[in-house]
Amino acid sequence: MSKFSDYEYRKQPGFDMNTFEGANQAIPMKTLVIHCFDPRAAEIPKAVAEYLGDEVYPGENILDESGNRVGHTRTLFVETNAGGRAAFALESVASMDYIFSVQNVVVVHHSFCGTTTLTPELLIEEFHDHYHADISTLFDRDSLAIMDFETSLKHDIAMLRSSPAVPKHIKLYGFFYEISSGKLTEVVRDIPA
Ligand SMILES: [Zn+2]
User: Fold this and answer.
1) Is residue 83 a contact partner of residue 156, using CB atoms and an 8 Å limit?
2) 69 CA distance to ligand 1 middle (Å)
3) 32: pLDDT confidence band, cut at 50, 70 and 90?
4) Are 109 and 36 in contact (CB under 8 A)?
């Protein structure tokens, strides 16, 4: 046992990893929204929840009689990264499908995103010049900068659809979000038959 072992589910009495059937009864998660961590884009999850309907966001904690947080009412989870790129969120799709049961993955790219100030080549070259480090093969190159919003959204939805980390039944949506008006525009959707 290490210092924080008591806080691991796998160490709880009665918990068996091999029969664990997921945590949807504790948190009814069904939608993962991937967007940029730009603070001006912080209202994206709420806008997506309203657009999709039938979502609970932000929701609230569910407490047991001792006050422990044993669940939450939220259905829509959020992953943020630079640009809101799907390539950097693949692990989350796979692990959240293991723990919950992902039904929708939503990618949102926003107006005046910082990743429209650069190109993938510039990022790689400048990093090399400043730090003598080669990052050219570390990342999906097309995900390093947004060169065109429709192209970036279609790229991310196509990448998700072709990835083994994304179960084939999952519905995919790509939106453009205008940060000043808060307007959400659907650009692409891929709903399996
Ligand atoms: Zn951004």
Assistant:
1) no
2) 32
3) very high
4) yes
Average of pLDDT values for 87-109?
97
CB 105 within 8 A of CB 32: yes
Q: Phi, psi at residue 173, to the nearest 5°?
A: -135, 140
- On whether 128 is known to bind a ligand per the annotation, the reply is no
What's domain 27-112+147-190's architecture?
A: 3-Layer(aba) Sandwich (3.40)
> How do the residues of the chain divide into helix, strand and coil, expressed in percent and rounded to 5?
35, 20, 45
**Residue 113 known to bind ligand:** yes
Sorted by where each begins, the domain ranges of the chain are 27-112+147-190
Q: How many whole angstroms from 116 Cα to the centroid of ligand 1?
A: 8
pLDDT category at 2 given cuts 50, 70, 90 is confident
Mean pLDDT of 145-165: 98
Instruction: Report the pLDDT value the prediction gives residue 38, as an integer from 0 to 100.
Output: 98
List CB contacts of 108: < 8 A, sequence separation 6 or more. 33, 34, 35, 36, 41, 44, 48, 84, 174, 175, 176, 177, 184
